């Protein structure tokens, strides 16, 4: 079954979907409510687009609610039609992750640990984070996902990963909690993040 995981915490829930379906099969699962834009031509991106909506639909159905589609704001942040809930999506083919919260802004990011994270590390991590991550690709992946989740919580795209977002050092485990900070001018917001490490991917969410 493509639904890899679904965790419900009453007012918040998150899930991971593994894509095994065709584009038509995914579209049928949401009754063609959302159609892939013609500008999206990459076949894998088209599958990710639809699968993200399928997993959001599953999260709503878990609360006995009906999915009616998604819209995006000027910053590309997704919102549900006819619900005031907060949502966030992430994808790294063939996996798609989503989180939904009835009251608070949320962010989720899923990535597959790859060598490129070591190369881009100096551009996205501060010196303390770089020293803590070392050459551990999985730890670099947790840092990367954490910062991407923070951006989604903030909801705008004017943040610099190394400057405006900070993650406290941590000891890596299969799952755990870490503290993130969103720093904008003199304002600093602390965010508790949860991470999960599987054999194939890392996912971080609040």
Automatic annotation (TrEMBL):
Keywords: Transferase. InterPro entries: 4-PPantetheinyl_Trfase_dom, 4-PPantetheinyl_Trfase_dom_sf. GO terms for molecular function: transferase activity. Residues 105-169 form the 4'-phosphopantetheinyl transferase domain. Gene3D superfamilies: 4'-phosphopantetheinyl transferase domain. It holds the Pfam family ACPS. This is 4'-phosphopantetheinyl transferase superfamily protein. It comes from Chryseosolibacter indicus.
């Amino acid at each position: 079954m493509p639904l890899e995981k679904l965790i419900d915490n009453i007012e918040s829930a998150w899930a991971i979907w593994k894509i095994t379906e065709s584009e038509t099969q995914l579209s049928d699962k949401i009754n063609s409510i959302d159609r892939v834009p013609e500008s999206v031509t990459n076949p894998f991106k088209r599958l990710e687009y639809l699968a993200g909506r399928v997993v959001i639909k599953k999260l709503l159905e878990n609360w006995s609610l009906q999915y009616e589609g998604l819209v995006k704001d000027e910053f590309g942040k997704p919102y549900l039609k006819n619900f005031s809930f907060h949502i966030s999506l992430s994808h790294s083919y063939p996996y798609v992750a989503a989180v939904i919260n009835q009251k608070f802004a949320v962010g989720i990011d899923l990535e597959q640990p790859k060598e490129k994270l070591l190369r881009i590390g100096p551009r996205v991590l501060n010196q303390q984070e770089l020293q803590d991550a070392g050459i551990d690709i999985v730890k670099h992946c947790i840092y990367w996902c954490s910062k991407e989740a923070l951006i989604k919580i903030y909801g705008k795209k004017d943040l610099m990963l190394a400057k405006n977002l900070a993650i406290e050092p941590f000891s890596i485990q299969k799952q755990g909690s870490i503290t993130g900070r969103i720093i904008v001018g003199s304002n600093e917001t602390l965010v508790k993040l949860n991470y999960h490490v599987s054999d194939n991917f890392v996912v971080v969410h609040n």
